[in-house]
Each structure stands twice: as C-alpha cells, then as structure tokens.
Design brief:
alpha/beta, homodimer, six-stranded parallel β-sheet
Amino acid sequence: MAETKEPLIIRDKLQMRNWSRSMRIQGKTIALVPTMGFLHNGHISLINEAHKNAQLIVVSIYVNPGQFSTSEDISTYPSDFNGDLKKLMGVSGGVDVVFNPYNLYDYGDERESVVRREKVEGVAAAAVSCVESGAAGGGHETWVRVEKLGNGLCGRSRPLFFRGVATVVSKLFNIVEPDFAVFGKKDYQQWRIICRMVRDLDFSVQIIGSEIMREDDGLAMSSRNVYLSSEERQKALSINKSLSKAKHSVAQGLIKCKELRESLILAVEEAGGKVDYAEIVDQQSLEAVEEVKSPVVFCVAAWFGKARLLDNIEINV
Amino acid sequence: MAETKEPLIIRDKLQMRNWSRSMRIQGKTIALVPTMGFLHNGHISLINEAHKNAQLIVVSIYVNPGQFSTSEDISTYPSDFNGDLKKLMGVSGGVDVVFNPYNLYDYGDERESVVRREKVEGVAAAAVSCVESGAAGGGHETWVRVEKLGNGLCGRSRPLFFRGVATVVSKLFNIVEPDFAVFGKKDYQQWRIICRMVRDLDFSVQIIGSEIMREDDGLAMSSRNVYLSSEERQKALSINKSLSKAKHSVAQGLIKCKELRESLILAVEEAGGKVDYAEIVDQQSLEAVEEVKSPVVFCVAAWFGKARLLDNIEINV
C-alpha cells in the first residue's frame, strides 16, 4: 500500500470518451479492466497485467443488468464502492480512471430506461434479462451474440448471460475506446467469447487473458467465495485439487476424457459439492473432445452451499 | 462532371483504420457512406448529404454475404466497380476513399473464411446466411441483432437480413471509425435499426438519414430498378402514386389505417404488382397503428416482375 494515487471517478459516458480521446491525442495507450466491483486480489492481478501493456488504466465498475435474468437476484449482488476505491489506490502504478456509470441503458427517456431489480420467479423469467423486463416499448433492444461459443458450459444454465456480457463489453469498448482490455481466464468461456467477438466485429481492442489467481490453498479467487462457510471453503478445494490431478494423469498418459471427467466428478461430489458441469473442451472452439490429443481446457462449475464456483485448467499437449 | 478527384482505393482493414486515425489526428471529420456498389443517383445523394456534415468522405463498396441467406442469390447481385469509380469521380466535392475489402469475414484462417456464393434451394437455407454456411467450426459467429425493430416489415420475409446488416455496419464502424454515417430513408426500417443499434451499443457515430431520391416520374431510385421491363417500370409508378394519395387522404381527414392500406393494395395490385406488405407504422417503434394520430410512415414492399421494390412516405400529423 505504498502509493495513494487517486483515480478520477467518471460517471458520464461522454465524459469518459472525451477523456480517452484527449489521452490518445497525446499518444497515450489505454487499457480497460471491466469489473462488476467488490474487488479482490484477482481483479488487482488484472490491473497489474494491464500495466504491463498500457500507459493508462481505466477500471470500470458496473453491475450489468443485461447479463442477469429476472430469475436471478441482481439486487443482492455484493458491492462496496468505497472499499473498491481504497483497494485501487493501493495498486502499484495506480489506476487513472474509475468508470462507474449509473445506468448504461439509460438513453434519456425516463419511461424507457427503467431496469428491473427485483427477482422474478419461474422458468419464463430466465429467458428475459433485467434490461428487457424493465423496458416498455422503445427501450434497449440491441444484443451482441457469439452464437456457438456461448451455447455450452455456463451458457446452458444461463442462456442470457453471455449475450449480456458481449453487449455490455461492446458498449464499454465504444465508450472507453481502449487499446487493450484485460479479462481473467478463470471465466474461460467469457474470455474466449470476448476474443471471438473482437475478431468478428473488428474491434480495435487487443484482449489480454490473465491467469487465474488463487488463494494460498489453491482456491480460485472469486467474489462468490464470500458466500462459503469455512467448512464449505475447505471442501471446495476439491475442485482445484481434482483439476491438478487430471492434468497430472494426462501427463502420465491417461487421455480418455470420460475417465478424467468421472474421476473429477466423483471427487468433488464426495467432498459435498454438486457438479453443474465438468467438461474437457478444445481451447479455441470450446467443443467437447473425447481424448486429450491437442490443447484442451478442463472446465468445472460446481455448487458448494450457496456458491456456484468456477475453475479450470489448461492442458497443453 | 466538373471534378475528377481520384479517390484512394483501400482494400485492407488495417490500412483503412490507419488512414482514418491519421486524419482524425489532423482534426478532420469523416463520414462513411456504406454501399453494396452498382451506384446510382440515390447513392450520390447520400454522398452529397455526407459532404454537408464532414470534411472527408469514405464510400464503402462491399456486397455483404452476411445479409444474404443461402436461398438468395448473392452471385448475381449486380456489380460494376469501374463504373462506380467513374461515378464517384464525378461527385461534387469528390470522395476521399473507396473502401473495397475482398472479404470482411476472412480472419486469416483459410479453412474458416470460405463464404458460400452458390444459391441453395429450400426453406432451411433461408435460416442460414452465406457466411455461416461456408464457415466450418471456428468461423464467424458473432451477430448483432436489433430484436424488435428487425422483426416486422422486411424482417418477416428476410429473417436474417437485418442481423447481417447490423453486423456488417458494426464491423465497418469499427474499421473506418467515422464521425458520421449516411443511410437512405428509402430503406426506412434499415435506417431506424442502425439508429437504434448506435444508441444501444454506444457507437460514437452520428447517423444521418437521407431523403428518398426519385426518378423524374416519381419511382424511388434503386439498384433493383434495372430488373424492370419498361412496361413493368410504368406500372410500378402505382406505388409512389398510391403513397402520395394516402398522405393526401390523411390531410383530408381519413385516418383509418385499414382503409388507407386497402386502397393502396388495391391500386398496386390493379396495376399488376404483388404486394408483400403495406403497413402504416409508428416512425420510431415501427409498430403498426390503427389510426394516423401521430408521426407515422407508410411502408410498402411490392413485386413487379422479378423486382421487389421498396418505397415509403412519412406522414407527420
């Protein structure tokens, strides 16, 4: 906590873009680190990665209603803006701007810019985001979808999630106009989707994938870890341990994905977890493979108590 | 044809963006006029409109496979690049750049960048664009969709069309980085969709809607008019005449859309046309109205011979 550089806090889209343009005219390069706040050391590692590539750092803090379905509870998503600012002031090299907009779906028409924040029960609610359910008539209706990459893994249980992520990231790119943007590889599918979107839509932003940050005991850092009791937290270590074991098994010649997956599922469920998915997929296409014969990533989502935890390990053969 | 300013022809994405950035650094403003080539005076009017707003003009000429379904025939889409260049050299004030990329869906992987150019028969073919059908595996898969505005009018018979338009326009915006872009109001739905997309995704591009250009006899200018025999051309005037008559009727107090529509459909079909749709819709939401009590647009698509012609008239009450 040596430095105490105070970031500029910007809440207005236009002011944000003007800042970026004034910096670009001076020949400065800008990296964007998009977050939903409630920052932990995983986020800080993204900022450190940003510093390796660009001269100026913009951290966005915005809980995006477009990626929550109305059956998910956006109102209880954890936030701590002052705590976040404090953490950002301690980052080595500092942060230049915190972009913290009120509502990125407010287009100046009061009637149309309402975003639903209450949870709605039922299956149908899962197919409508908080943005759509609150918008009557001429509201937000443009969505960016990465068709295939978004269908599997987390896309199966959260059909609107990646559409919401790709859309808000497009908005942020158009507002901040960064040269670089940093995404964590813990959210492996999200990172690949953003890379593909940037390529397919010709965004002039270079995407940097940042390695997973782990606690000392190996648990992948996540805002959701606060939901774990200390007992659950201990049990959740089974995810990372099983992934490391799988990688080790491959190195020893076990390449059948069926066996590798079954072994991991067994271990996590024996520890008391509930596996949402455990899949070994191609690193680029995210399509499931039967044998590990090319670079793959072993992706896991599992529930421990109230927390749905994600983790993964790349296996390069 | 007083001037003979020769435009710079750019075929490479990166070179295009570099040109724009070098101009922006000099404080110049840029307007983009996106076209599919085979230029006529309607296009020239878009360029004239561009000159009123920006210092530099980029005209893109690109037949976008992403907006053709495989049941439509992209290979016979008319083109005349040299003729287009000649016309552009005659434009008052000139054109600075013609951006004429080979393939905007070529991402450097030979296997994945094939675009299907043959027509495929059958209903299923209508649900896949020429980009998707030619891409095996890791090809282009990111699409921008303006959900509601794209569903009605032309969206009903061409379910992929506006998705393809919004996507290629996003790509062009990210490559050219213009300050302005000009779209013709003849394609009214397209214009509204682009406006909404720009707002919803926070593109920093100002969209200019350019009024419909008509031949001396009132026929809306279109690349498709070349498909009309002289007899069909004469009969096709019924569209514009009926639209003007409808506007006149409204001014005289007839506000029932049912009657206005029936009267137009009758006139066009008596002239030998086949009406695809004739709808009176809100200018912003493009939702059908029952009575003309607020600004509407009367949109028509009708077949004469092999040509599907579009026309419309705004009625501001």
